[in-house]
Each structure stands twice: as structure tokens, then as C-alpha cells.
């Protein structure tokens, strides 16, 4: 059945629902590019601050219990990609993260029909940047061609399209590019070129720091990491209503703002 959403105009809005997962007791074992000490208690406190901010903005926040078996499971964005009617439950690129999705499914099943990805496909939600009915998807160390093809097929049935983007540096596409507004992307120009987005009618703003390229544009508010003060200042100058949040300890596990939640849109709306 073709999606009823095909003909529906979509507006960028604050999410109806955010799904988050508390920081694992084993968070110090999380995957990371640069080995460094992690203070799990500090990460927990920062995660609480992030969740409190989402509670001010989203209609509802569902908090899943921390999972001791999965040190990376607070980065909940990677395990699912909501489209319109469908949500793809991914097969994460890192073997140690496979299995995180199972406990997120029940929270998602009330809102979507689930489409589960299977081997050999891999895809991390951090590689998926939504711009209305267009999904830019990074082909990265975590997301392979079969993962992109699976998402593209579900998106096609659901009235959306997938545009693959080569990601040769950094962890995920959204480590270096996120939506700032309906037609504006903020990018880390050191990592990704804006041309692919401009070719699809989007305007690019260059973030002055790499951690500034991952923002959350939630309705009227733009959330920026406290670790990216120059980006916060630039966006304020440009008229955005910026809120900052301290997530430095969570950045140590190579995660940014978007990866800490799954945002579920309302009908006729889309959320980054
Ligand atoms: C990982 O390597 O999988 C985690 N330590 C970080 C995942 C960050 N996810 C995201 O940006 N979407």
C-alpha cells in the first residue's frame, strides 16, 4: 500500500515524543575513537540535564531503563529511524551494539509499523539526516550499502526518498551535518562539503567548531552543545533562539546531541 503521507505537506516541528535511555553503569566501556577516562556519574548528571531540556520542549519524554549489557545504549538514536508510518529498527554497524534495539521496539511499536533490518545490512541512525520527506544517509564505517538500500525501500513505500552521502571522516553523517531549519543545514566544513545538500535546495551554514555541527532544531528552539560556544553565539547573531546544554562527558563517547534521543513526529509534522 502506498503511503498516505506521499501527498501530505510536512512542517518542521518540535517532537511529539522523545525516547531516551539512561546512561549504562558500564558507560566507561563505551566505544570511542580516542581513549580517555570517563566519569560515569558526571555523564549521568549531564544526561539528566539533557532530558530535562527535552521535557520542556517535547510533548512527552519516555525514559527507558539503563542497560548494563550495552555501554553505548544511551546513544539511542542509532537503533531506529522513524519515517512516517514505518520505523526501521536498524542493525548497528558496531557488533557490540546489536541487540540494543530490542528493548526500544516496544516504545516505538505504539507509534509505527516496525521494519527490522537484518544481516548483512548495517545502519546507524546517526547517519540519517531528515529534511522533510528526504533522508540523507551517510555511507560510513557503520552504515553499508545494504543498510542504505533497506532504508531506501522502506522509505519509498512510506512516501519518502533516500539520498546516499559518502562519509569518509568522522563517525556518522550527523557528526558533521544537522538540520537547523526546514531548508537550512549546519555543517562542519572540515569534514563534509555542502554541495550535496545545496544540490537539493538546502542552504548551508558553516559551524565554527566541529561539535557545533550537531544541533537539535526542535520547533522554536535550537539546542547547541555547551562545548560549542562559538556556534551558539553565531546562531544567536543570526536570530535563532539557542539553548545550550552540557554534554561534555557524553561527547567523550563520540556522541553528540542528536544521538541521545529518538524524536517521534506528530502527524503532518517532521522532527530532526
Ligand atoms: C558508538 O561508537 O557507537 C558510540 N560510542 C557513539 C554513538 C554516537 N551516536 C550518534 O552520534 N548518533
What does the model show?
The chain has 272 residues and is α/β, with parallel strands linked by helices. Helices cover 21% and strands 26% of the residues. It contains six helices and 17 strands. It has helices spanning 40-57, 102-109, 145-157, 195-198, 229-237, 248-251, and strands at 11-12, 17-21, 60-64, 80-82, 86-89, 113-116, 128-131, 134-139, 161-166, 177-181, 184-187, 203-206, 216-218, 221-225, 241-245, 262-264, 269-270. Strands 3-2-16 form a three-stranded mixed beta sheet, with helices on both faces. The chain has a three-stranded mixed beta sheet with strand order 4-5-6, sandwiched between helices. A hairpin with a 2-residue loop joins strand 7 and strand 8 (134-139). It is globular and about 45 Å long. The model has no long low-confidence stretch (mean pLDDT 96). The structure holds citrulline (CIR).
How would you briefly describe this protein structure?
The protein has six helices and 17 strands. By secondary structure, the protein is α/β, with parallel strands linked by helices.
Give the arrangement of secondary structure elements:
Layout: E1 11-12, E2 17-21, H1 40-57, E3 60-64, E4 80-82, E5 86-89, H2 102-109, E6 113-116, E7 128-131, E8 134-139, H3 145-157, E9 161-166, E10 177-181, E11 184-187, H4 195-198, E12 203-206, E13 216-218, E14 221-225, H5 229-237, E15 241-245, H6 248-251, E16 262-264, E17 269-270
Parallel strand pairs: 1-17, 2-3, 5-6, 8-9, 11-12, 14-15
Antiparallel strand pairs: 2-16, 4-5, 7-8, 10-11, 13-14
